[in-house]
Amino acid sequence: LQALNGWADVFLKTPDQGLEDLTLKVAYNAGEYGKLLGVYHKFSSDAGSYDYGTELDLAYKYKITKGLGLLLKGAFYKGDDKVPGSPNAILANALDVTKYWIQLDYKFSGEL
User: Fold this and answer.
1) What is the pLDDT of residue 1?
2) Residue 88 has what pLDDT?
3) Which of 35, 85, 94, 100 is close enough to 79 for a disulfide, judged by CB 3.0 to 4.6 Å?
4) What pLDDT, on a 0 to 100 scale, did the predictor assign at position 110?
5) What pLDDT is stored for residue 70 in this prediction?
């Protein structure tokens, strides 16, 4: 689900007024120091002129040893407090959401 509309999962259901997601993505490969990714979203409605809010998603991926990797992620959604309520509870999108992930993964070589 995190491939679209931000990692904070605020827009799992599209509002009745529609959803526009203006996205800016920046990636940097720091070689042996890992990889950085930043994604900025500005959410607004298709119909009407509602600003739903903005989100900043950040990720850092690092290879610790051969086969062992670390992934740190954060999602920071700032809802627009001026969004009016509607029958589909669009007001819930005005709440701020912050999420963090820490992940270790290991790739087996296939040789025993």
Assistant:
1) 53
2) 46
3) 94
4) 74
5) 98
Return the ∠ at Cα 14 (arms to 13 and 16), rounded to 5°: 120
- 92 or 95, higher pLDDT: 95
Cβ neighbours of residue 16 under 8 Å, at least 6 residues apart?
Answer: 86, 87, 88, 90
Torsion sign over Cα 50, 26, 5, 70: negative
CA 17 to CA 6: how far, in whole Å? 18
Give the start-to-end residue ranges of the domains of the chain: 20-106
Residue 55 near residue 40, CB atoms below 8 Å? yes
Q: What is the 3-state secondary structure of 24-91? A: EEEEEECHHHCEEEEEEEEEECCCCCCEEEEEEEEEEEEEEECCEEEEEEEEEEEECCCCCCCCCCHH
Q: Provide the mean pLDDT of the chain.
A: 87
Helix (H) or strand (E) holding 23: strand 20-29
